[in-house]
UniProtKB/TrEMBL annotation:
<protein>
    <submittedName>
        <fullName>TetR family transcriptional regulator</fullName>
    </submittedName>
</protein>
<feature type="DNA-binding region" description="H-T-H motif">
    <location>
        <begin position="32"/>
        <end position="51"/>
    </location>
</feature>
<dbReference type="Pfam" id="PF00440">
    <property type="entry name" value="TetR_N"/>
</dbReference>
<keyword id="KW-0238">DNA-binding</keyword>
<feature type="domain" description="HTH tetR-type">
    <location>
        <begin position="9"/>
        <end position="69"/>
    </location>
</feature>
<keyword id="KW-0805">Transcription regulation</keyword>
<dbReference type="InterPro" id="IPR001647">
    <property type="entry name" value="HTH_TetR"/>
</dbReference>
<dbReference type="InterPro" id="IPR036271">
    <property type="entry name" value="Tet_transcr_reg_TetR-rel_C_sf"/>
</dbReference>
<keyword id="KW-0804">Transcription</keyword>
<dbReference type="GO" id="GO:0003677">
    <property type="term" value="F:DNA binding"/>
</dbReference>
<dbReference type="InterPro" id="IPR009057">
    <property type="entry name" value="Homeodomain-like_sf"/>
</dbReference>
<keyword id="KW-0614">Plasmid</keyword>
């Protein structure tokens, strides 16, 4: 049975969205095409009509995940009285730690992405730049653009590392303490005087 062009495009978008979530839950190699397509409610046979390869889908799903994460940060910042604190509170929370399918793709897939092709790593690079831009815009003004950039880089590295470590831990109290310590340090980094 032939599907319309509109339905084929809707199916493609569904596969990208489902892959974005499933890759974050299971890793790029943790799910095969058959199960991925089943998760999207489609058969494996249609995969190659929509995508050149699994790498093509990985790159598209990674871009979707990174764009979603950046939009989430921007949305939280826009709706918070203290935008930077709102982003820190969202990201360095027990709730985010548990969001394996919808949480940060840098945490869920960072080490996987580092071993992938340039085409797969590019959406992550673009997403990192977008996250840095959001953080830089939220930093208290210091008059030194380079200082805001360094602070944003330090803060992103601290936050991604903290959530990654907290997901590894089986001791929930220690995981919570790690996130709390990182949140306090992120706030301190933002408030620090410019480096000389």
């Amino acid at each position: 049975m032939r599907v319309s062009r509109a339905q084929a495009e809707a199916n493609r978008e569904t596969v990208i969205n489902v892959a974005s979530r499933l890759f974050r839950e299971r890793g790029f190699d943790g799910i095969g095409l058959k199960d991925l397509m089943k998760g999207a409610g489609l058969t494996q046979g249609g995969f190659y009509k929509q995508f050149e390869s699994k790498d093509d889908l990985v790159a598209l799903a990674s871009r979707r995940a990174m764009e979603s994460a950046t939009r989430r940060w921007s949305s939280v910042a826009a709706s918070s009285r203290d935008p930077l604190q709102g982003v820190i509170d969202l990201y360095l929370s027990a709730g985010h730690r548990g969001e394996t399918g919808d949480g940060c793709p840098l945490v869920a897939l960072g080490s996987d992405a580092a071993r992938q092709s340039v085409d797969v790593r590019k959406p992550f690079q673009d997403g990192i730049k977008a996250h840095l831009q959001v953080l830089e815009e939220l930093m208290p003004a210091s008059g030194d653009d380079d200082d805001g950039s360094r602070k944003a880089m330090a803060m992103l590295a601290l936050m991604v590392g903290a959530v990654t470590l907290s997901r590894i831990l089986t001791d929930e109290k220690l995981a919570d303490r790690l996130l709390e310590a990182a949140a306090a340090e992120a706030k301190r980094v933002a408030a620090m005087e410019p480096a000389e």
